[in-house]
Amino acid sequence: MIVQSSKQDDGTMLMTVLVDSLDRLNMPEFKAEAAKVISQSDGRLEVDCSTLGFIDSSGLGAFLYAHNLLGEGRQPMRLTGVGSEVLTILELMQVHRLFELEPKR
Q1: Containing H/E element for 55?
Q2: How many domains does the chain have?
């Protein structure tokens, strides 16, 4: 299991990443869980990236997949606990503006 999902008190669905990298090997599992979680949500998704230290193009594609599943007119997917390496990748690929980002403290 690479993510754990739960519903917060305000109705936001929370996916907590449990691995240190999101890559081609575990991306299919992330996408499947994201699809399941989003289908049960009211359009608000938060992904806790506190343990995530590396993301490759497949992992980035998984984030974009979840973003697209949320659809137009909904709140942006929120990424919390984003480390500097993951943030750098999001910025280099110029997709950081698609997400609501909260850097790791």
Answers
A1: strand 54-55
A2: 1
Distance separating alpha carbons of residues 64 and 58, to the nearest angstrom: 10
Q: Which domain holds residue 65?
A: 3-103
The CATH number of the domain holding residue 89 is 3.30.750.24
Sign for the pseudo-dihedral over CA of 60, 2, 40, 32: positive
Answer whether residue 71 shows pLDDT above 90: no
Structure-token pair, residue 61: 């594609």
- Name the DSSP class of 78: E
Q: Assign 99 to helix, strand or coil.
A: coil
3-state SS assignment for residue 44? coil
pTM of the model: 0.92
